Structures are given as C-alpha cells and as structure tokens.
Amino acid sequence: MSLKTVYRTFSAGDAHLVCSRLEAANLQASVAHELSALSMDGYALAAGGIKVQVPEEQAQDAIEIIHTRDGDGEGEAESV
What we know:
globular, Alpha-Beta Plaits, 40% helix, alpha+beta, four-stranded antiparallel beta sheet
C-alpha cells in the first residue's frame, strides 16, 4: 500500500486534528515525522514538516475533507 501525503504542518497538534477528522470519515490516516520533528530543532523544516498521510486511493477524498474543514489550521493541504 502506497501512502500519499495530503497535509503538511509544523504543528503536531494541527496534524493530529486533521488526522482525527480523516479517521472520523473512515479514511486510514496516519501522522509521519512527528517524533523526529519534535526531538531535533530545525528537523521539521528540513524534512518538510509533519505529514498526514493516507493510502493513495483515498487521497482525493482526504483533500476534499481537509479543504472543507472549519477554522484556520497552520498547515496546508497537498494537491493530488
């Protein structure tokens, strides 16, 4: 199963909020690079941030859900 990054942020809390929203929509979401980003200063920037990923076949649905969310997050949705 190939994973696709659908959201990037520098905030672990923001990443988990997005991940939870996707899981509530029955998508298989996960957060990547969180621990590395939190353990080493500057790593999150070098690694491209903390990523929310889903299986490739769920990416379009995930991005639509992210774009329709309420409020302003700190990250940005990827394009498919």
